[in-house]
Structures are given as C-alpha cells and as structure tokens.
TrEMBL record:
Protein name: IclR family transcriptional regulator
Coiled-coil boundaries: none
Origin species: Acidipila rosea
Pfam family, one: HTH_IclR
Gene3D superfamilies: 3.30.450.40, Winged helix-like DNA-binding domain superfamily/Winged helix DNA-binding domain (1.10.10.10)
GO biological process annotation, one example: negative regulation of DNA-templated transcription
GO molecular function term, any single one: DNA binding
Keywords for this protein: DNA-binding, Transcription, Transcription regulation
Length: 289
C-alpha cells in the first residue's frame, strides 16, 4: 500500500520491496598512475585559467617551475588543438573558448544526475532514509532524482514534482545561494514571500543568510510531522547548484538524531560537488547546535 503524505513530494511507502543493491554501480578505487605529459598539459591550462593576463613562455616556465624547453612542445600541441592561442603582438598565450564549449556539450542537469547517482544511493543506505535532489526551475522547485531508503517503511519523493520553493527546506537552501540581485528579484515575485508579514520577511532573510554561511537547513516540515534536512550541492560561482534533501520519517531509528546526521549528508553533497569537477564552497555545519 502506498499512501500520499501531506509533505511536498512525499509519499509513505509500506511495501517491503527489495532495495536495489549498488554492487553494479560501485567501483573499487583504481590504482593511480602518473602521466607526466598529461600532468604538464593540465598544469599549463590551469595556470592560464588563473592568470589575469596572457602568459609568455618564460612566465609559464617560472610559474610552473619548469624549463621553457619542457613546455614548448606541449604549448605547441595545445595551440594546434585550439585550447590556447597567442596574442598577435606579444605572442603570449591565453585560453580559447574550447574548454567552455566542451563543458557545455551536456546540460547541467545531465551532469548533476550522473554525479549524484551513486552518492545518493550510498547516502540512503548509510542513514536508512530516502533522499532526493532538487533544482530551481524558474519560480518552482523541481525534483530531478531520488533514492529510496532500504527500510520497508519509508518516505519517497516523486521525480518531476514541482512545488513553491519557500515552502520547502531545499527551496530555501537554493534561494539562499542565489546571487544577491537574483535573490532580490526572485523574492519580489514569489507568492509565498509576498504573502508574508514584514517580521516574517525579516526572519526569512536572516535565515537565508545563515543557510548560505553553513550550507544546510534543518527545519520542521511545513506540511507534515517531522523534520526535513537539505544541504547545498555545487558552486554558485559556476552556475551549477542543487539541493540534497532528506525527509526524516517520524518514529524511525533517526528520530531525535537528525541534527547529528547533517555532517554525513553534507559529506555526500560534497561528493556530488567534487564529482562535477567543482570545488565545494561551504564548510560542514555544526552537528551539535
């Protein structure tokens, strides 16, 4: 039997369906091999990406602590493949848009789904709770993935469900990580925000500021009994953001322990961020607050 819960997206599933194992998805850590030529090429690309202006061969050799002769052939190969180009007068090197083009071959959602698949199922196994991944789409929060708890009684989330963001923990997390101008514009048009009293708006802005500092929200669900947790995924500077949500089932083994599990949830959110090739921008929140 499957009952619709009162919380956004959520249903309570009493079917003791077998939980999919992750054996096929998990891989053993591979032996790390050192590839000098590849390392050299990546060092050059990263050095040019971080430089404020085009770099000469001498500049690159000094910054990378290599000799010009070590870098010359690699620079020639990268230039022939259009990853870098030279200024017409100084002949200093700079990046082209080739890497940008490659990065946008697949949509951000496709990249999120691939990066989140294994960490989400591992999180569900680790804490014995279901979890889901959400993104903002216009004025709505959309669930793009979910992993069910292995427990026979569990909360589950409908992939594709759309709800007003400020009514959910994940929606507030994503609102908190909007750029200031975008956040102001979003709130001005959000029906939930417009219906708030002045004191409620002030409290919300304070909450959003704290969420951006700590990277998570643990709050009482507005639509059901129990707590909802959500942790930030991605890097707002790169325009790839999502929220990893966990609706805690009241009366479960985690009842009363929800806050202590925040660092665990954040560690899996960080795994997803790193799998995207991004650097995490938030510090794990305190477990004992």
């Amino acid at each position: 039997m499957k009952m619709q819960a009162t919380a956004p997206f959520e249903t309570v599933d009493h079917n003791a369906l077998p939980h999919a194992t992750l054996g096929a998805m998990k891989t053993n850590k591979e032996t790390r091999y050192f590839v000098p030529a590849l390392e050299k090429g990546l060092d050059i690309l990263e050095a040019l990406a971080s430089a404020q202006m085009p770099q000469s061969l001498t500049d690159l050799a000094r910054n990378l602590q290599r000799t010009p002769s070590e870098l010359f052939r690699m620079l020639d190969a990268l230039e022939r493949r259009a990853y870098i180009s030279r200024e017409p007068v100084s002949e200093a090197y700079h990046l082209t848009l080739k890497l940008f083009e490659l990065a946008h071959t697949h949509s951000p959602v496709d990249q999120l789904l691939k990066a989140a698949l294994i960490p989400m199922y591992e999180l569900a196994e680790a804490i014995r709770e279901s979890c889901h991944l959400c993104v903002l789409n216009g004025s709505m929060l959309v669930v793009i993935a979910q992993a069910e708890s292995p427990e026979p009684v569990r909360l589950s989330v409908e992939v594709g469900d759309r709800v007003p963001p400020l009514r959910t923990a994940s929606g507030r997390v994503l609102t908190a990580f909007l750029q200031p101008a975008a956040q102001k514009y979003f709130l001005a048009g959000d029906p939930t925000y417009k219906a708030m009293r002045r004191t409620e708006r002030v409290a919300l802005v304070t909450e959003l500021h704290r969420i951006r500092q700590e990277g998570y929200l643990l709050a009482t669900s507005t639509r059901r009994t129990g707590l909802d947790a959500s942790c930030f995924v991605g890097n707002p500077e790169m325009g790839i953001v999502a929220a990893l949500g966990v609706p805690f089932l009241p009366g479960s083994a985690n009842d009363g322990k929800e806050r202590k599990l925040i660092p665990t949830i954040q560690s899996y959110a960080e795994q997803i961020t790193r799998a995207l090739g991004l650097t995490p921008t938030v510090t794990k929140g305190p477990a004992g607050r």
